[in-house]
Amino acid sequence: GSTIGILGGGQLGRMLSVAAARLGLRTHIYEPGANPPAADVAHAVTTASYDDAAALGAFAKSVDVITYEFENIPTQALDVLEAIAPVFPGREALRISQDRLTEKDFLSELGLTTAPYKAIDSAEALDAALAEIGTPAILKTRRFGYDGKGQARISASSDAAQAFADMAGAPAILEGFVDFSHEVSVIAARALDGSVSAFDPGENVHKDGILRTTTVPARLSSAQRSDAVLLAARILNALNYVGVMGVELFVTPKGLIVNEIAPRVHNSGHWTQNGCAIDQFEQHIRAVAGWPLGDGQRHTDVVMENLIGDDMDRVADLAAEPDCALHLYGKAEVKPGRKMGHVNRIQRGKA
Ligand code: ATP
Ligand code: MG
Ligand code: MG
């Protein structure tokens, strides 16, 4: 069988490896950190940094195709890898999603609606942008933010100086605050032959910037549901994308607003493990391995709940709970805010 190289050894790399193993494929993880969660279930692990060209080259030679579980892969590492093995979803998807400004420009050019935004590189630029966009607004670092990190809310223009100081000199983007009723996401896949398949949109609830629960089905009219799926397909096609993508949306009375895209399997798609014959991880492996996409139709209602930090104290109870599928990532150390696992609660008899 062939071997899939995966950049990143976190829980997403782990669940991708499990899905690959079920298809008779092997995975080779590349991860700078020690003891990554994916190491337990992968066929091989390389522990090296992303500027180690020799290690990257040897890794690329040992695999048939390369994918990734996070979007912040340095361009120089891609240069080395791409010369040896195909990398999917690919360079363009990474370039677009590594920078919130590039991403919003791309989405706007596609004709999709985003929050109003402006690039911020000085305190004066922030004052000018606030005068135009108004408050409330959110200042975000353009790169490397996740789980709500690198963001500062601006309720009134008097908050501007502190918010700008919080960015610590990093290039930033100001976004107008979207008055949404709720948040949903579409997990969609595109195969090498260009065919596209989307999972049913899920409804997401965040707490302290971190995803808490995803519920399917989401509260959407049938028009909103097809809108969500069609706009996701438009994004995948525009990028000539291969693999699974997560598209986060705000639902407003005026329509769907795209918050951000993630060029990888996505936390809000974990429900598919127990709600579909083919889950997002297998769908991604199928796509990057050049297989046809599988049947991602939802066969039951599901509520996914993340287990974060001390939620691990509830594991014994959760293990005994009926209709509750437990997924743990094997992380040795519990830390506040750290994603340790998740549960999928099957809403039996509902579909
Ligand atoms: P992730 O972990 O999903 O990558 P992130 O750190 O990239 O998160 P965002 O998704 O940009 O951050 O923002 C986190 C949450 O903050 C959103 O899901 C939403 O609830 C809220 N939020 C972000 N931007 C806006 C906005 N412009 N208007 C209103 N709420 C927002
Ligand atoms: Mg994000
Ligand atoms: Mg987000």
Automatic annotation (TrEMBL):
Keyword ATP-binding: yes
Gene Ontology annotations of biological process type: 'de novo' IMP biosynthetic process
Pathways involved: Purine metabolism; IMP biosynthesis via de novo pathway; 5-amino-1-(5-phospho-D-ribosyl)imidazole-4-carboxylate from 5-amino-1-(5-phospho-D-ribosyl)imidazole (N5-CAIR route): step 1/2
Annotated ATP binding sites: 100, 140, 145-151, 175-178, 183, 206, 259-260
Keyword hit for Membrane: no
EC number: 6.3.4.18
Catalytic function, reaction form: 5-amino-1-(5-phospho-beta-D-ribosyl)imidazole + hydrogencarbonate + ATP = 5-carboxyamino-1-(5-phospho-D-ribosyl)imidazole + ADP + phosphate + 2 H(+)
Sequence ranges assigned to domain ATP-grasp in this UniProt record: 104-289
A molecular-function term among this protein's GO annotations: phosphoribosylaminoimidazole carboxylase activity
A GO cellular component annotation in the UniProt record: cytosol
Function: Catalyzes the ATP-dependent conversion of 5-aminoimidazole ribonucleotide (AIR) and HCO(3)(-) to N5-carboxyaminoimidazole ribonucleotide (N5-CAIR).
Subunit field text: Homodimer.
UniProt record similarity statement: Belongs to the PurK/PurT family.
Alphabetized HAMAP family for the sequence: PurK
Protein name stated in the entry: N5-carboxyaminoimidazole ribonucleotide synthase
The organism of origin for this protein: Primorskyibacter sedentarius
